[in-house]
Amino acid sequence: MSLTTLPIAKAGDDIIELLPQMANRHGLIAGATGTGKTVTLRVLAEAFSRAGVPVFLADVKGDLSGLGQPGGDNPKVVARAEELGVRLTPAGCPVVFWDLLGKQGHPIRATISEMGPLLLARLLNLNDTQSGVLSIVFKVADDQGLLLLDLKDLRAMLEHVSEQAAALKTSYGNVSAASIGAIQRGLLSLESQGGAQFFGEPALDLDDLIQTGAGGAGVVNILAADQLMQTPALYSTFLLWLLAELFERLPEIGDPDKPKLVFFFDEAHLLFDDAPKALRDQVERVVRLVRSKGVGVYFVSQSPLDIPEDVLGQLGNRVQHALRAFTPKDQKAVKTAAETFRTNPRLNVTDAITALAVGEALISVLDAQGAPTVVQRAMVYPPSSQLAPLDPAARQATIAASPLAGHYEHTIDRESAYERLKGRAAPSEAPAADAPSAAAPHGRATASTEDQLTKAAISIGTSVVRSMGTQVGRSLVRGVLGALFGGNSRRR
Asked: Which domains does the chain possess?
């Protein structure tokens, strides 16, 4: 097996290999429940990691934590290796665990300003009128130089705008008490679902997702999503925000020899369910353009019908597991899946899709010229990592040994809209003599050690750059989707 390719399956005597230089042209893993999608995701993640490509994926079932440990002892894995005539080499990947709720991994946070009004409106399930009022609130915060970092900042800003509605009407438009109330109720609901823990500082530094471990293997970033899936709007909006941040902040690099990062979007239908056309159009645009940043996006879903046609057309590498054809909708999904492949005269794709065994798939990848290969019926390789999830103690030990341990665990609460509007801002402390003043935080940090405080100060310095514009403009930044809808672009 060549180190310049990523072998993922075998069709007879033919090895199906993904070309690293084509891996940023995105992909699709589809199939009914129980047909092998998760194992295929695991095998692809292992292959990318071995090639030195960092990976971000969501563990929606809670069964991917074993990626960090050598496997090979599962009877089904051993049987698959024997069936394919391949040598099984047990190996784990370097992993980092993340969790929006902060229980099963390092906390992930974003500021309210980074999320922006468009994605926040989707998260709160606001109608057009309410979304417009939310945009006004963000605009007033921009114009008055008020930082929106966490939920209490946004609540204070909503109260402020509501109180000043009459004075603001001429410059910004009508702000109804009913819309303010609807937004506040949405925030209360979001907080009850654990969403409040996601907003604040230190905000996620994307560089921490793009790391390599021992021997140059790409780090596999695993988001604990089994509990998060109980709030699908938060799950899908977070992943969309993260994809948008990658698009906006990474430099253009064209088509690299291998991706800078591979992003797996599991349960992809949640991204598009009930999404307005304007948002779907912007998702299509981000997917189309993010490949030039060296990011490969792989959607994982039950049916290709879950993915809008304009997005589906950009997914060059395809793995299609079995589909069922019990209903007219199922039959349409089978037909759609069959039509997306390059025809193989020796294979009836439509019949094959409904007859695939578990772990078997129809696969087409991009060749060196970027053209899809003819579809082949193949058996996905067995994974090298541990199939069983880690026990809680082993998981916590991995988190504690992570290079990021202690960096995101301690929240920071500096002066922002809440303190400014409520008149309760804590006095700024003089910066230490050996610390650059630009990194000194306003407000409080709960970290207790000097090392943690230093990390926190660095995080604040980074977040200040990400959250504020020039002193002249004093504009708060927006995520790329907000910018595409006329918001402010990120200034550095």
From this structure: 6-108+205-392 (3.40.50.300), 112-200+410-484 (no CATH)
